[in-house]
Amino acid sequence: AAAAGLWSEVNRCGQNGDFARALKSVNKILQINKDDVTALQCKVVCLIQNGNFKEALGVINTHTKLLTSDVIAFEKAYCEYRLNRIESALKTIQSASEQTDKLKELYGQVLYRLERYDDCLAAYRDLIRNSQDEYEEERKTNLSAVVAAQSTWEKVVPEDLGLREATYELCYNSACALIGQGKLNEAMKKLQKAEELCRQSLSEDSDVTEEDIEAELAIIHGQMAYIMQLQGRTEDALQLYNQIIKLKPTDVGLLAVIANNIITINKDQNVFDSKKKVKLTNAEGVEHKLSKKQLQAIEFNKALLAMYTNQADQCRKLSASLQSQSPEHLLPVLIQAAQLCREKQHAKAVGLLQDFADQHPANAAEIKLTMAQLKIAQGSVTKACMILRSIEELQHKPGMVSALVTMYSHEEDIDSAIEVFTQAIQWYQQYQARTNHGCCVFQPKSPVHLSLIREAANFKLKHGRKKEAISDLEELWKQNPKDVHTLAQLISAYSLVDPEKAKVLSKHLPSSDTMSLKVDVDALENSHGATYVRKKAGKLTGDNQQKEQRQGEVKKKKKKKKGKLPKNYDPKVTPDPERWLPMRERSYYRGRKKGKKKDQVGKGTQGSTTTGSSELDASRTASSPPTSPRPGSGAAVSATSNVIPPRHQKPAGAPATKKKQQQKKKKGAKGGW
Q1: Which CATH number characterizes residue 3's domain?
Q2: CA gap 386, 364 in Å, rounded
Q3: Number of domains the chain is built from
Q4: Looking at the domain assignment, is residue 14 inside a domain?
């Protein structure tokens, strides 16, 4: 009776959604009968509903004999999935004896988290095909998310699923798929539509606030900002990113991606802001919210930021960790080489790149290009050329041939430059022989092959290698006998080597009549940019003819004006050849002579004047007052004396200067003490 009452309590609480009270009743039932399978199942469900996934899984693992995989496979797999034990969840699902609809739904989610998108796509298609319930819209949304992930991470061209984009989730996923294809403008329109649909659907609910709507729109705005960043509108993207961060969204994955994108915009600038943003990428649970490629990109940017902030040890540690996770990835070793270059250890950086190229031949081309760049930066152009020529898959490419020829020309190594041309031409000849299987006696050259031959001929002619250029020009003329330009070059080259041969070849030149070009001379002269315009000949009247004749006579009479000569010019004296130079720069300049002015004021010791010493001798005067006052006397100097002591004398012209100085001081004076 007690158990029956408890079961009715459990049933009532379950229907009301009060799983905490239901759990208490279930525990009381288990105290009565600890091996009650139904009670154990109810306990697991109550724990899951309350979010206690770890405890629920503990109950399942403790009672394995009672709670077999057939009985509780879904609950166990779901707990493992929520605890981010994805591989374990997959094993649990696959080991179940019966694949129920619930297990199939969970199986699709598990495959998505494991990034097995092809299998996931097949699972959701099967679910949509064989299910008819109220969750069809959610399944279609998940299906579109898988297609978007394939387009973004695996660069697979998405197929048209024929889904009606009636919800903002479907519009958003469609936009993500378009971003993966590089169709940014179309993706932006889809995101704007998704934003509009989101506002409409959420505004219908009276309980939803504007803040809730903005929080839901954060992921859409984040994707909009990413498109702006890809389009080069970094300022707009940065502004939108910061607006999202200010909202403080609860999605740690969204915050981590936005912080990472801001760091990529900052690059080596504003590193203080980047260091603050890095903290958002280290939040708990981020690794379970993002894909492997997203997490890898964040780690790469952390290593680069450590390099930019001169944290060499941290940079090496992060790049080494990345290399151990992805041994064949280029970026970790490139970051390590860049760090060594910052430390002026270029030889060590080149050695590191060489070791990686030897271990991973598939990625050797990109690494060797970096090695060549480092050699050029060091000034070792010849060594850089040797490295570039060792890249077999690129050495015949026109771009590589052009780069090598330019570098060898810079080093004045013409023979090596010609050798590069020769090897590339031979490669194309061999390639053409392989493709044609030797079936035809005359094999027309490919456009790239002919272009290389022509460039080689022009290069040889430019550097005086006439004999070597002749064979290339003959090959070109053989391919196209109507090419007058090539024939002219060939005749020009032979004229310096074999004039007789040049005469014979000149017979092949077309006659002047056949070479006449259909050019409208008048139209050409009157065209925009013509340097000479011929005046149209018109009939001149008698008066006009006379005027023109007079103007012609006036023009003939005009003579060139003679240049003006200086006033002190003497035709007999040879002009100074250094007259155009400033006086101080002339060879005979000896500086300004300083005249000895006896009457100059301020010469000598302090207080001396221009007055003779005899005039200042007080002993020679009739009434000579004492030089200093006696004790008790009232005045320092007698009023009757005509002699002014030296300190009281004023030189001639001094008073006026002093007044001027005082006036200047008054004008420029500012506030007192």
Answers
A1: 1.25.40.10
A2: 14
A3: 1
A4: yes
Inform me whether the pLDDT recorded for 659 exceeds 50.
Answer: no
1/5 Cα distance (integer angstroms): 6
**Domain membership flag for residue 50:** yes
Q: How confident is the model over 247-273, as pLDDT tens digits?
A: 999 999 999 999 999 999 998 888 889
Rounded to whole angstroms, the Cα distance separating 482 from 480 reads 5
CA distance 596 to 648: 26
* Cβ neighbours of 328 (radius 10 Å): 11
Say what the pTM is: 0.66
Give residue-wise pLDDT tens across range 353-399.
Answer: 989 888 888 888 888 898 998 888 888 888 989 988 888 888 788 88
- Among residues 408, 406, 368, the alpha carbon closest in space to that of 388 is found at 368
Return the DSSP state at 511. P
Looking at residue 146, its pLDDT comes to 93
Please name which of 510, 511, 476 lies closest in space to residue 490, comparing C-alpha atoms. 476
Give which of 257, 295, 247, 251 is closest to 277, Cα–Cα. Answer: 257
CA torsion, points 262, 149, 139, 251, in degrees to nearest 10? -20
Q: Which of 281, 235, 239, 237 is nearest to 257 (CA)?
A: 281
Would 350 be classed as within a structural domain?
A: no
- Interatomic CA distance for residues 652 and 85, integer angstroms: 106
Domain of residue 4: give its range.
1-98
Euclidean distance between CA atoms 105 and 135, whole angstroms: 11
Q: Which of 16-20, 368-372, 589-593, 604-608 has the lowest mean pLDDT?
A: 604-608
